[in-house]
Design brief:
The protein has 358 residues and is an alpha+beta fold. Helices cover 44% and strands 15% of the residues. The protein has 2 domains: 216 residues, Endonuclease III, domain 1 (Orthogonal Bundle); 130 residues, Nucleoside Triphosphate Pyrophosphohydrolase (Alpha-Beta Complex). Strands 1, 2, 3, 4, 5, 6 and 7 form a 7-stranded mixed beta sheet that branches. α1 crosses α11 and α8 crosses α11. The protein is elongated and about 75 Å long.
Length: 358
């Protein structure tokens, strides 16, 4: 059934493919960086990060040797920081085992840290024209609708079956284009949430979901578990132009990132001032800030914030907390987007906001 989609899909892609920076050059390093960035991140959001990352780290060697703080700073605003940590592990493996060049072999690509079936298929097909599938959420949505399938696309068995079906029809001479065409169709035409543009879809002629009037019902996904809620009190500790930050643990959520000091629970002003004094600091003003929230994949932070102005004391550092110039924080220390609502009170901007200001 799916064989009939190949020619019309490629013909549509030839005339409608978006101009994207990572499509200008199919070097495997560029393809890899873009694919990892695009995981759980919108295309428009990725563009400025991609250009900045490639300018700072233009090849595998530079990524393998990059200091961690600098690497995390380049990734600041993209989130899911384990992605870039795994990229560095993979870069070091490529340097050690393959002389700094990505192997033109699907199984070897798949063995690299942080590279699963989708990414191995994307790099292999786009950079090396290896006829292997690259099945992501967009592709699963397109194929579920074309086939009118109610199979749960979150099941690994369903995804594996889709990969096998796609592999059977990948044209050997245009493997990369075919994979990108399927992804592109799902990204800009066969979109989710009742917004599918069936009237301009090149596969409308064979789409079983369209014929049956069930496009909006597909794809089927098992309901996700509710996120755990956590209350946090975030502190912007200011002493003149300096601000207090600390480094998070090397393990767990936001591992190794720098953060604004924060406490469990929703604390009042008196509790915050008591904590600050226990740190050996001398507060003379406290200003409550608007509440904020940040959503991670499995947990949601509901945050209360305060700006606390401090008198300079002989020793400002305490239990991992240290004070630096706020602008230095903006340039050198990677602070996750979870604290974006409060870093503005440091008179700096982070990640995506830095690009939007320009």
């Amino acid at each position: 059934m799916l064989k009939q989609i190949v020619k019309p899909l490629l013909s549509w892609y030839d005339g409608h493919a978006r101009v994207l920076p990572w499509r200008e050059d199919r070097h495997p390093y560029r393809v890899w960086v873009s694919e990892i960035m695009l995981q759980q991140t919108r295309v428009e959001a990725v563009k400025p990060f991609f250009e900045r990352f490639l300018k700072a780290l233009p090849n595998v060697k530079s990524l393998a040797e990059c200091p961690e703080d600098e690497l995390l700073k380049l990734w600041e605003g993209l989130g899911y920081y384990n992605r870039v940590r795994n990229m560095q592990k993979a870069a070091r493996t490529v340097m050690e085992q393959y002389g700094g060049e990505f192997p033109a072999d699907y199984e070897k690509l798949l063995s690299l840290p942080g590279i699963g079936h989708y990414t191995a298929g994307a790099i292999g097909s786009i950079a090396f024209n290896i006829p292997m599938p690259a099945v992501d959420g967009n592709v699963l949505r397109v194929l579920s609708r074309v086939k009118a399938s109610y199979d749960d696309i979150l099941k690994q068995s369903v995804k594996s079956n889709m990969e096998k079906e796609v592999q059977k029809i990948i044209p050997a001479d245009r493997a990369g284009d075919f994979n990108q065409a399927l992804i592109e169709l799902g990204a800009i035409v066969c979109v989710p949430n009742g917004k599918a543009k069936c009237e301009i879809c090149p596969l409308a002629f064979c789409c079983m979901a369209r014929e049956k009037g069930i496009v909006d019902e597909l794809p089927k996904k098992k309901a996700k578990k509710e996120r755990r809620l956590e209350q946090k009190t975030v502190l912007v500790l200011r002493e003149g132009d300096r601000v207090g930050i600390r480094k998070r643990s090397a393990k767990g959520l936001l591992a190794g990132m720098y953060e604004l000091p924060n406490l469990e629970g929703c604390l009042g002003e008196d509790e915050v001032l008591e904590y600050v004094r226990e740190c050996g600091l001398s507060p003379f003003r406290i200003l409550p800030l608007a509440g904020a929230k940040h959503v991670f994949s499995h947990v949601e932070w509901q945050m209360t914030g305060y700006v606390v102005s401090l008198e300079e004391t002989e020793s400002m550092d305490h239990d991992g907390l240290f004070f630096i110039d706020a602008k230095e924080t903006e340039e050198k220390y990677p602070i996750p987007a979870a604290f974006a609502a409060y870093v503005r009170y440091m008179d700096i901007v982070l990640g995506q906001e830095r690009y939007e200001e320009r």
